[in-house]
Amino acid sequence: MEKDLNELKVQAEEKVHAAGDEKALQDAKVFFLGKKGKLTAILRSMKDLSAAERPVIGALANTVRTDVEAVIAAKAAELKAKRLEERIQSETVDITLPARHQKEGHIHPLDKALREIMKSFMRMGYSVEEGPEIEQDYYNFECLNLPKDHPARDMQDSFYITPEILLRTHTSPVQARTLRKHEPNSPIRMIAPGKVFRWDNDATHSPVFHQVEGLVVDKGIKFADLKGTLEIFLKDLFGSDTKIRFRASYFPFTEPSAEVDISFAARTHDEGGDPDWLEILGCGMVHPMVLKLNGYDPEKVSGFAFGMGIERIAMLLYGIDDLRNFYENDVRFLKQF
Length: 337
Ligand code: DAH
Description:
Elements: H1 2-18, H2 22-33, H3 38-44, H4 53-90, H5 109-123, E1 127-128, E2 134-136, H6 137-140, E3 160-162, E4 165-167, H7 173-181, E5 188-197, E6 208-218, H8 223-238, E7 243-251, E8 254-263, E9 278-286, H9 288-293, E10 302-309, H10 310-318, H11 325-328, H12 331-334
Parallel strand pairs: 1-5
Antiparallel strand pairs: 2-4, 3-4, 5-6, 6-10, 7-8, 8-9, 9-10
Helix pairs in contact: 1-2, 1-4, 2-4, 5-10
3,4-dihydroxyphenylalanine binds next to strand 9 and strand 10.
């Protein structure tokens, strides 16, 4: 029996070594160590042994079992490692292949400037209004105290579609529309951004450009409110050291009217110390006729209004010197913002 056990051990180890996969290994295990396997068969015949032999053979049988189990475990580990290695080989990714870059979009500098403007006014509690780009002559001009033969209509070269319909020349008609949307004499605090259109095209004028309109109406609104508001806004936008100047001007929809200039410390002429002023927006106290024409009572409420070009502000904010850059959509230009 000792011989049988030793033979079993040799055979089992050979079989295990020869196993090419987990299935063959499992078969070998069952064949030698299983309930109906070879080792069990040998152990069954132990009953024929003498009492002296039995423990010796028993111990040997245990050693054989342990040895074969160890060989099987080692083989199992080897097969597992082999399978992993095969997977690693078959699933390799060529990391030296250059990546395909996704092209990222950018916020257009005009949109970026508009967002800055909106942020500043929304912080002061302004709502954001919209109006149509194809507008009635009535809202674009007449409701804003610019009747048909008013000479100030020449200030804005308009694209007419019919004698009564045009592409709006400014965002000011949204003032009239907003006033009419409200209960007469109720307070308003709004801005209205959007596209405007004029018959003009060169390095500093585009037939399509963008404005932001502003309107505040309430009881007792004064010119000081206009000044304070615009000062907060312009310092918000251009920095707290920005200098601001109001210059008397004329707009048919405001009285008095003003143009606002700004100056940066860095732009001051060194020699004379004279600031380099840049015109940035138009504004004024809402003309009583505008309030009246749109259902408000100028005896009860007053207001201020302002209008600015977004292109001009974006040019100053980002140091752009040719307006046409905004519309050519050259990625090399847009990418910088
Ligand atoms: N609408 C004017 C323009 O396009 C700008 C403007 C000036 C708007 C004064 C206003 C204002 O609301 O009060 O030139």
